[in-house]
What we know:
alpha/beta, 323 residues, Rossmann fold, globular
Amino acid sequence: MKTALVCGAGGFIGSHLVKRLKREGFWVRGVDLKYPPFADTEADEFIQGDLRDMHICKQAIDRQFDEVWQLAADMGGAGYIFTGDNDAEVMHNSVQINLNLLEACRQGNTRRIFYSSSACVYPEYNQLEPDNPKLEESSVYPAAPDSEYGWEKLFSERIYLAYGRNHGMEVHIARYHNVFGPEGAWNDGKEKAPAAICRKVAETPEGGTIEIWGDGQQTRSFLFIEECLEGSTRLMRSDWSGPVNIGSDEMLSINQLATMAMQIAGKQLLINNIPGPLGVRGRNSDNRLIAEKLNWAPSQPLIRGLEKTYAWVEAQVNASQAP
Length: 323
C-alpha cells in the first residue's frame, strides 16, 4: 500500500486531499494544529501538532513516504492578508514550517514532495488592469508581490527548488488560484470571496443589500476544490517540478460573482460597494503551460462549483441561526 503524509490536513484543501488519497487506496497520515472543523478526518493517523516545531516534523516523518503534500501555511482571505496586521506571523510561521519539513524529509530519505504556492507570488505591476492581467509562470520576475504572504510563498518556492537541486529531492510546485468549495472557512475572518459572498447572500432577505469591498470591478478567477485536486495529483505524479499555475481561466468581477450567487439563491439583492482591503486589481490563471506539460485544464464552469458551495454555506448559515 502506498503511503502519503498531508501537512495541513486540518485545513480546507488538505482535508479534501486526505479524502481523495484514501479513495485512491493510500494509507494517509495527516498533521495539523487542528482537526478539520466541518467533518471528521479520514486520515488513518492524525498528529495534532505544530510543524514550526522540528520535533513534530520528525515525528510526522518517521518513515519513508511515497508522497508528502505540504499545504500547511498561515493564510486567509483579503481581510487577513492585506491589512498588514498579520505580516510578521504570516512570514515567520510559513517559512519555519517549510524549512523544518524539507529538512525532516531530507533526513528521513523521503524524496517526493508537493508544495502549494500561490498566485500571490506574481508582480503587482502585472495585475493593475482588471481586464488584462499577465500571469504566465515566467512573469514572476522581476519580483514584486503585493503582500508579504506573496513574498513568503515566492521565497519558499526557491527553498524547495534548492533542496531539489542540492539534495536530489523530487519537488513539485503549484501556484494555486483562489480555491473554493464546501467545508472551507465561511465566517471566521479568513474566508475568501466565494464563501464570503455566499454567506452574505444567504444571510440577506429578498430585496436587501450586501456589501462588497472596493468598486466591485476587481477581477479574479476561482477554482473548485475537485478541480484543484485533479490538477495537483497530476503534477505530483509527473516528472516535472513546475512551478505551474493551477487555477481557472474563467475571469469575472467580484460584483459579477455576487450576482451569480444571487442567481443561485433565487434572490434579488442590491450591492453596496464600500472601502476595504482589495489586493491586486486583476488576476486570472494563465493555463497555457499546464496544458502543454500535463495536457490538463479545469473542466467545470464556475457556476457548478458555486452552486455546491452556496448550498453548503446556506446550510451553515441556517444552522447558526437556528434557536
